[in-house]
Amino acid sequence: MHAVAIVAAAGSGSRLGAALPKALVPLAGRPLVVWAVEGLLAGGVDEVVVTVPATERAAFADALPAGVRLVDGGATRTASVRAGLAAVTDPGRPAADVVLVHDAARPLTPPDVAARVLAALAAGAPAVVPVLPVVDTTVLVDDDGAVTDAVPRAPLRRVQTPQGFDRATLVAAYSALADDAELTDDAAVVRAAGVRVTTVPGDERSAKVTVPHDLTVAELAVTLGPSGTVTA
Ligand code: CTP
Ligand code: MG
Questions:
Q1: Which domains does the chain have, with CATH numbers?
Q2: Ligand 1 proximity of 161 Cβ (cutoff 6 Å)
Q3: Rounded distance, CA 131 to CA 157, Å?
């Protein structure tokens, strides 16, 4: 099973507010995107395509291991993944059986998560997402912010990346999607095409770096090592 990963890294990181695009921001001295790519390769992915801001190609090429392909991203995450997918299906490349799509913004995702996603795909699932339970009481509010109802928590899950797909299924779902569609993840794209999405356990260490506090937590997790990290 030839597995190619697309790492979405073309965002600016406006909420992080760093001087660099978020994927290039260092975590323990190495850019977030480098952590993300190495985790996928350690988890069993054969090849990686990274979608980058067009103006930053040189900086990404300097940071990433040889063999990682770079593709210019788009204005939205959906557009960036679409561009990455075009590179995956390039007829000059070995055909991918499965495609994992991951966020550079999840640098500390343990390799085991990618391995679980790959195992589910190998067992025949067309689409797989890593998930975690919701631990907080979760409520609905009205326009004024007043609580109107509590949501039963048992069937709720938080969805992470890497998300895995049968390659032909993902390509068909993106082809069927309107050009200007903007969905927050890739499972939503295949679900829109009627594909069943199954789940595997995610990991708290896959947390997304969005705001500066997340980077502080990630630095601490690296400093403390496995014994200090929080698991599901
Ligand atoms: N992403 C992308 N192309 C875009 C926007 C986002 O490839 N046009 C990527 C980001 O680089 C990131 C992932 O999608 O790894 C998840 O997006 P997010 O965490 O929102 O990152 P940014 O869009 O960079 O951050 P912000 O929304 O704060 O600007
Ligand atoms: Mg964003």
A1: 3-131+158-206 (3.90.550.10)
A2: no
A3: 6
